[in-house]
Protein 1
Amino acid sequence: MTHDSHGAVAIAPPVSSGKFAAYCRLAKLDIFDYYLSLAVAWSLLAAPLRADSTTLAVLALFGLGMLCLVAAMTTFDDVTGLRDGSDAANYGPDAPLRKIRRKPLLAGTLTEREAIRFGWATAAGCVLLWGAAVAVAPHAPWWAVATAALCLVTSVQYSYGVKLSYHGWQEIFMVALGLGLVVAPYGLLAGEVTGFALVQGTLFGLGPLLFGVYSNTNDRAGDAAVGRPTVAVLTTERGNKVFIGAVSAVESVLIAAATLTGQAPWWFPLAMLPVVALRVIQFVTGVVRGRILTARKLGTYTHRVSVVALVVTNVLLAAATGGGV
C-alpha cells in the first residue's frame, strides 16, 4: 500500500494485468446499461421494420460514440476519486465486497496522466462519431443534436472540471443522461419525439438512478469526507430511505400515468409489472433489510428487465398498429 502525490492511498496488485485490460476497466466496459438505450430507441421505430442501412449506420455510430462518452465520464470520475481520496475510502480494505481491480488508478496499473489523456481522447472520439451519426442521419432536428451535445458536455463535467456531481446534481444527471441517450438517436432517425418516447426515456433514466442511490448509500461516509453532496450525504438515514422509496414509487406512477393520459396502451402497466415487482424486492432488500450492495446489484438486473419490457412493448405495439410507436 502506497501514497500518491495527492495523498490518496494506492493499493497495488501483486501482478499487473496489462495496460489494455487496465484501460478497459477504466472505461468500465463491463457495465453496458447505458448502451441499452439504443435498443429502446430502435424499438420505438418499430425495430423489426427498420433495418435499412441508414438506420443501422446511425445506431452503430451513435453506439460507438456512447461507448466513448461513458469511457470519458468514468475515466474522469476515477481521476477525481483518486485526487480527493474518495475511491480510497470506498474501495479500501474496509470494503471487501468492492473489487480494487475495477479502479486501475487506485490499483496502480495506470497513472493519472495516462488516464487524463485517455479521457480526453475518448471524449474527442465521441464528438467525431456523433458528428458522423448526425451527418448520415435522415433527420437532424436541433433539439436532438443539442441533447447529444449536452449529454457529452455534462458527462465530461460530471466529476471533472465543473464537477456537477459535487454540486448536488448527481441524481438529476443520472435520469437526464438516460433520457437523452434514448431521445437523441430516436430524434435523428424519426425527426420528432413522441410523448411515449419521453416516458420511456425517463423510465430508462430512472434505472441507473435506482441502482446509483444504493451505491451512494454505501459510499455515504466517503462522499461526505470529500464534500460530494449526494442525497445520502445531505439527509439523515431516514430521509435517504424516504428518498429511495419516493424515487422507486415515481417509476410506478409514471407507468400508470402514461396509460391514464393515453400515451401508452392500456396493457402497458401489465407489461411493466415484473419491473414493479422487482423494484419492491429491491427496496425491501436494501432499505428494510439493509443489504445495500445486494440491492444495488438487483437494481442493475431490474434495469435490464425494464429495457426488455420496453422493447417488447414497442415491438408488439408496432405490430398491432402497423407502424412506429
Protein 2
Amino acid sequence: MSGRSPTVTRLFWTLVLGGAAGFRYGAPALAATGAACLAILLHRLDRPRRFRSLVRRIARRHAATLALRRRQERFLDAYGNTIEDGWLRERAYFVERTILPLVEARGFSDYVDPRFDQMEAIVERVASGYALPDAIDTPEDGVAYERYCAELLGEAGWDARPTGASGDQGCDVIAEKAGVRLVVQCKRYARPVGNAAVQEVAAAALHWSGDMAAVVSNAGFTPAARKLAGTTGVLLLHHDDLSGLAPVRRAGRRMVTAGR
C-alpha cells in the first residue's frame, strides 16, 4: 500500500478484515464492515472542517497579541493610505512558526502549501475580531511624543526623562530601573522607521553609557532596520510596548525585554 493515502489504507484493511469476518460470521460482520467504511469516509469528508477548527484554536490562544501587533503594524500614511506591510509579514511569520508545526503534528502536512492563504485568512479574522482597549491618541509633535514615551516608561516604574531637543546625540529619552540604563530614540512617523535610527541609537548607547538601546515608533520598522537591530541588539518597540517594559538580568549580563 506504499504511496496510498491514510484513508485508502484504512478502507483497504477494513474491507479485507471485514470481508474475512463476513465469511465466518455472516451478515452482522458485513454490516459492521459497511458501517466502519462509512465512518472512515465521513471522517475524511470532515477533514477540511477539522483543519480550519484547529487553525482557529491555535490563533485564538494568541488573539490578544495578534490583535495588538495588527494595530501596531498598520497605519495611515500622509496620503491617507493604509500601510500594512509590517502586519502582513507578522501574520505570515505567525503562521510559519506557530501554526505550521502544530498542524503538521496533527496530520495535516498535505494542507501546508495549498492552504497557506486560508490559514492567513483565519489569523486575520481572529486578530481583527479581538476587541482591544481603545487606542490612545499619540502626540503629533516629535518633542511631545518623546515626553509621551517617557511618561509611559515612568508608568512602568522607570526613572525616565527626555534629554531635550538639542545635543542628544541620538538619544531622546534616558530611563533607569534596577541598575539598567535604557537609551531610547523616539520616532513619530507616517512611515516605517529605517535602519538609520538603529545606527544612531546604537551609537547613542555608547555615548550615554547605556546598558540597552531601543527605537520606539508608532509606525513599525523596515526589514533593513529589523535586520540591523538583530545584529546590534537594539530593541524595536511600539509605544504600546513601553507600559510592559522591564529590566531583566540573564546569564550575568543586563538586558531589557518587552513583557507582554
Protein 3
Amino acid sequence: MITNEHVEKFVEQARRYGKERWMLCSSGDLSWRIGNEMLVSGTGSWLRDLKKDKVAICRMMDRQCINGVKPSMEFDFHAGVYRNRQDVNVVLHFQSEFATAVACMKNKPTNFNVVAEIPCKLGRTIPILPSMRPGSSALAKAVVDAMVNHDAVLLASHGQVVCGRDFDDVFEKAAFFEFACRIIVLSGGNYDVLTEAEIDELEYYKFCRGGDM
C-alpha cells in the first residue's frame, strides 16, 4: 500500500529531476511503481516544484486513479512499461535541451555511442520513434513496444523516455542521454562512435571483471 512517506519521496525525487532543467514548466512526467500501485505526476504539474496534491495514485490492474488526482496524459505508456518490465520501477518522460534538439533534427543520428556510458548504462541502441500526437494511444503503444527491450527511446519532435530499477538509475540514464546528445549537437555532426569491438570490451569489463562504469 502506498503511504504518505512514499508520496513525500516521490515529490522529492520529482523536484530533483526538475532542478536539472530536463523539462520546461509542465512538460515531462514521472512515475514510480510500488507493488500493484503506482504514483504518477498529475496533469499540468511542474516537476521542479511538484506538490503532494498533484500526485496521482493509480492501481496497476485496472489503471484507475484512487485519490482523485488526474494523472499525466502519458499515463498509458508508463503503465504499459511496468506491465512488460518487471525489472522496472521508475519511468521518466522528459524534454532536455540537447536530446530534444536531436529529436527535432531532420537527419537524426542512428548511433548514440559517443561515450562508454551510453552502451553501458542505456544499451547499445536507442530506438527513435516517429512523431505522434502526445497523449495518443498510438504513442503509448509505440513507447511500450520499444521499451520491451530498451531502457531509453527518443521521440521525434517531442522528447525522451527512460526507465530503470530506481530513481538513481533513471537519473543516471537521463543525464548520460543528455550528455551524449550534447556532444552530438556541439560537434556539428562531426563525431566518432565506439566500435562493436570496443563495446564488447566494455561489456566484458563491466560484467566479468566487476568494473564500475
Protein 4
Amino acid sequence: MEIIDIINKTNAFLVEEFEVAPESITPQADLKETLGLDSLDYIDLVVAIEGNFGFKVKPEDFQGIVNFQDFYDYVIARVKQKELV
C-alpha cells in the first residue's frame, strides 16, 4: 500500500468516526485536540485502525503520538512491517 493511500484511508475513517471536518486534519494539528479524544475515544480509534489496516495496536504505541504526522508515521510503519511478513 502506498503512503498517500494510507494517509487518505486514515483521514477518511477519522472524518467519519470522529465527525471532524476534513480540512481540520493537517500533519501538524494536535491529534487529541482536533479529534476531541477522551480515554474512551482512544478505544474507538484503536478499533478503527485495527479494522482498517489489520494489525494490533498496543496502548503504549500512542505515547509518542502528538500530531497527525506522528499518527501517519506510526500507521505507515506498521502497515509496511505487516507487508514484509
